[in-house]
Every structure is written in structure tokens, then in C-alpha cells.
Amino acid sequence: MNALINSTSAELLRLRKWSATWVVVGAWMALALAFGYVFNYVAYVSGEENFTSDGGTRAGLLAQMLPPALPDILVQGLPMFGGALAMVIGALAAGNGFGWGTWKTVFTQGPSRLATVGGSLLAVTLIVVAMITATLALYLGVSSLIAVTEGQEIVMPSLEAVLEAYGTGFLVLEMWAVLGFLVGVLAKGPSIAVGLGLVWALVVENLLRGVGGLISAVETFTHVLPGTAGGSLVGALVGERSGTPGVVTTIGGEQALITVAAYVLVAGVAAVVLMRRRDLA
């Protein structure tokens, strides 16, 4: 247990000191703020429609930016954009260990491979927790500021709704981060892992879902893909929203939850098993 804790602390230190981690997290926070509030607020103030307003009234647009709508706003950008960036973090955490020789050094001089890889996965999980927590805090502050600016009463969403959204967001990001970690292990390097992960998350799954409308076998296959599972888990919470990329209602919420949890478990175990058996010489 001490070896696992020490490995997690060491990996967290590496990720914290690594500028790439802050770049990825900062990119997500900027995207979250822009798509969650900035574009809507500009449209509200200017009276113009944008792709996020979906032709709604100004009152409806304002309602989307107030604290009661926070749970829905928190998760709606996670299936595609947040998931893709979480996958980058996982891929970089695993892949760079090969390029820099970190894995070989630690496996030779440090604790067991199980403790080392487990600690790295736990560190990535803690980064995911930090991402979703920071997003929640940002959204809470921005929505409250908009309410005060527009002379609206600050009414907070129910704790149950916030916790449900938080848990959903964590699972979606965790799934993509662990899958990215597995791809980094398979690719034995960060560049290919990041490239493959982004192409899959942002392009391939969307193309397959498009083809699935024409070929039933492909449509059935898309029901078990990670993007469909994560998007359907969010869709079960907020409903399918026009103009929100990645949010779908292809499968039910319970099936989506089971699929997402299965991806987290299987990808994590697969990464550990591969690293325990791999020759790094």
C-alpha cells in the first residue's frame, strides 16, 4: 500500500511540474467557459442568435446561464471536447514514460510494476477529479456573476442534481483518460497515442454513427463504442440537445452507465497487465 501511495505522489508531482498538463487543462477550461457561457452571453447581450441558442428567446437564453441550469451545463461539453482532452492527458502520462525512459528506470530501481502503474493511473484519476471540480467551481462563479449582473435572484440547484452531474462528468472523463492511458501503453509513445486518440474521439466515432444510419450492423456496433456510451450517459441526464456535439440518446442511461464503468475497469486492468508483461529493454 505504501508503494502505491508513494508511486501516486511521485506521478502527481511529475504531472504537476509538467507544462503539458496545465496546457491541456487550461484548454479545457477555456473551451468550457466559451461554450458554456461566453457565446450564450454575447448572444443574449447583442440580441443575436448563435449556434448554442437554437433560436430560443432571450429569457430562455438567460435561464441557461443561471445557477439552476448549472448541472446540465457542467456535463454537456464532456462527451466530445472534455473527453478528448482527458484522453490526451492519459496518453501523455503513459506514453512519455517510454520516450523518457521513466518506466524502465522505475521498474529497475523502484517498487513493483503493479504499484508503479497503479500509482500512475490513480494520479491520472486525481487529475480528472481536479478538472471536473475546477469546472464546477468556474461555472458556479460565472453563473452567479451573470445572475447578479442581470438583476436575477441567485437560486442554487439542488445538491442531488449537482452530485449527479458531477458523478456523470467524472465517469465520462475517467473513461476517456484511462482509455488514453491504455493507448499510450500500446503505442509506447505519446505522439502516436495522442494522434490516434483524438482521431478516434473526434472523427472516427462520428463517422461510424453516420454510416450506422445506412447499415444496421454498423449501427449496432456503435452502441458499444465509448463515445456512444459517454454521450448517452450525459444524454440520459440532460436529454439530447441540438447543437451539443457528442450528446446522444442512442442507448439507455443504465446501459450507458454499465458500458462506461466497464471501459474504465477493462482499460485499467489491460494497461496494468500489459505493463507487467512487457519487456522494456
Question: Which features would summarize this protein structure in a list?
Answer:
single chain, mainly alpha, globular, 12 helices, 281 residues
Question: How would you describe this protein?
Answer:
- This protein is an all-alpha fold and 281 residues long.
- Helix content is 79%, strand content 0%.
- It contains twelve helices and no strands.
- It has helices spanning 2-17, 19-46, 58-64, 70-76, 78-99, 102-109, 113-149, 159-187, 190-212, 216-222, 226-238, 253-277.
- Helix 1 (2-17) packs across helix 7.
- The longest helix has 37 residues, at 113-149.
- It starts with a helix and ends with a helix.
Radius of gyration computed on alpha carbons: 20 Å
Number of helices: 12
Shape: globular
Low-confidence stretches: none
Topology summary:
Layout: H1 2-17, H2 19-46, H3 58-64, H4 70-76, H5 78-99, H6 102-109, H7 113-149, H8 159-187, H9 190-212, H10 216-222, H11 226-238, H12 253-277
Helix pairs in contact: 1-7, 2-3, 2-5, 2-7, 4-8, 5-7, 5-8, 5-9, 7-8, 7-12, 8-9, 8-11, 8-12, 9-10, 11-12
Short overview:
It is built from 12 helices and no strands. It has 281 residues and is mostly helical. The protein starts with a helix and ends with a helix.
